[in-house]
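2 proteins. here.
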Amino acid sequence: MVRVRSCVISLLLSAAMVVPALTLGCGGNHDRVYDADHGDYHTWNNSETVYYQQWETENHYDHKDFKVRSKDEQKQYFDWRHKQPVR
């Protein structure tokens, strides 16, 4: 009986250490980009990527990573983005 109890306690402690590590990994690796003109952050996730690709298409830009765009183009995107309805 003591051996079973010891195994159950070990399993529970192991689970208590493993579960947080697994759930943090499921959150993904999303960058946050600060929009100084509007004073807010944009979490760069799949949703923001859809908006960004729509902006590139509407403005006839070739695809380029947001971080390598000029400050002026980034400002244009954020201005456009703040005019879009929230989905």
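next one coming up
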Amino acid sequence: MRWWDVEEVVALERTLFGETAWSAEAFWSELAAPGRWYVVAQDGDGPVLGYAGLAATGGDDADVQTVAVAPEAQGRGLGGALVDALVARARTRGATAVLLEVRADNERAQRLYAARGFTRIGVRRRYYQPGDVDALVMRLRLGGAPEPSGPSGPSRPGPTLGR
């Protein structure tokens, strides 16, 4: 994700997350923070179809900050490609595990993460506000050598991921 993506990402964020959406300032802060890495998915020069972010500051754990896919792009494997890119980046940063929180009522996202090897390790009660929705904490243990750096993309033609 680059600075010029923020306006479009914030618009998508509002569509997907409503009153809990991150502000432009939150994204600017994330992009400026050490150890943060964000990626966007687009069809060529078209609109942003999704984005994801990772905090990996060199410790054992990397933390997924966000994963989002536009409604019209869901069900095409884009969310999986974004998660795969975050995991690959975590490996290059030397992480041994990737952690995330997911809404307890977001079964689709839970299935996506489970299909990629994440397991539930805890619950954060009333984590998402407003609404008092619990967060499930999930972890993926990483093993083996780091993968090459850079974003990965879907194996079939379609949207591409770029920093």
